[in-house]
Specification:
Tumour Suppressor Smad4, TIFA, mainly beta, 5-stranded mixed beta sheet, 189 residues
């Protein structure tokens, strides 16, 4: 047998991709302490905290408007399955945290959907879970967005931003032909 045949079987690693956006990031550089270059390994029993206090938070946001500890993400294995997930907990007493459209007050927590937007203040973080098998650790891969993630991403979990007429018909079925919007009497349809 060769060493290749005797080697441990490689297992895939769950990776949490986080894409950060703030409208003033170019002027205030609040993401300067985050490592956007490579994936970072985090032990499964560690709680990943985000906030202003670099002595407590693994992911430091340099902004006085951010709480000392803003929120945390914890990796876990779902009961009676081999699936893994993350729970997000709001640790800020002053700022509400929103996951998609669910608002979390202080110490509230929920399971992180496989693709969602976490927001607080002017911060927007697109979170996407790439599933893996490892139970010992997970990885984070941080990205920086140039444009708001709420505008750039079309998420199935977010409501459509397309207006719907009172009669339930979407205006996209009417050709626009470059005209400005006009009001239509519902009897004319």
């Amino acid at each position: 047998m060769t060493s290749f045949e005797e080697a441990e079987t490689e297992e895939t690693v769950t990776c949490l991709h986080l894409t950060f956006y703030h409208p003033c990031q170019n002027e205030r550089m609040m993401f300067r302490c985050l490592n956007f270059c490579k994936r970072e390994r985090v032990r499964a029993d560690e709680v990943a905290k985000f906030g202003r206090d670099s002595s407590v938070c693994r992911y430091n946001l340099v902004d006085t408007r951010v709480s000392r500890i803003q929120f945390s993400l914890q990796f876990y294995r779902k009961l009676h399955t081999s699936e893994h997930g993350f729970e997000v907990k709001n640790l800020s007493k002053k700022t509400r945290l929103t996951v998609n459209q669910t608002e979390l007050g202080y110490l509230n927590k929920i399971d992180l959907p496989w693709k969602c937007i976490i927001s607080f203040g002017d911060y927007q973080i697109l979170a996407e879970i790439q599933e893996g098998e490892s139970v010992d650790y997970f990885e984070t891969h941080l990205h920086l967005a140039e444009t708001p993630v709420l505008q750039e991403r079309c998420l199935p979990c977010l409501p459509s931003l397309q207006p719907i007429l009172e009669n339930g018909i979407s205006p996209s079925i009417f050709p626009s032909q470059g005209k400005s919007p006009t009001e239509i009497d519902e009897n004319e349809l």
